[in-house]
Amino acid sequence: MPSSVHAPLSIEQMNRLDWPLLEQNLDQEGNAVIRNLLPTPQCRILRDLYAEPGRFRSKVIMARHGFGRGEYQYFRYPLPDLVQQLREALYPRLVPLANRWNACMGIEARYPDRHSDFIQRCHAAGQLRPTPLLLQYGPQDYNCLHQDLYGEQVFPLQVAILLSAPDQDFTGGEFVLTEQRPRMQTRPQVIDLKQGDAVVFAVHQRPIKGVRGYYRVNMRHGVSRVNDGRRHTLGIIFHDAQ
Q: What mean pLDDT is predicted for residues 16-25?
């Protein structure tokens, strides 16, 4: 396998990101885009893993379950080095926001600084199966709006990284988020992503401050219909599944 799939993420790379701005965007919109998180060669290497069934614990055909059209595969442990590094490098940067959100929403759960400690908590609760996944869409495929909840232990943020190049590898297939505030119509957002961009977003709920304090807003995400070509995405979910 090409060595770049094993290339470690540098601490400097993480430090160079504007985390205060990303946190501000997450507070305001429930999502934040990290531009050029992965270079094109690493995107291609990760995309090509889809054809290696030994890397994965299970495959889901969306149409069989009413999830939409397309398919995805969950990685097995041990995760590919780069996927593991992304999980471990992004998690601690999101912990302060995750803990603050839970405090605002009156949720007791707090998250440890290290991802390995959180995974131990998941496994103690019977959530033993890894959740990072690769998604593959072809012409006319789409992903219905949903939330990635796999058990009692839930980290409130996750990351999706677009591995394919829009207008080159595929057309259509926009990443879509919706926000349902109490007694209001659902608000949709279409997130503009390029190859290698990552979007950090709320898994389930996020807090919004109102005149009487904070209230919870329900979030869902999906992918609009792909017109042509093939679209691949890496999903980084920080909690494991039952």
A: 94
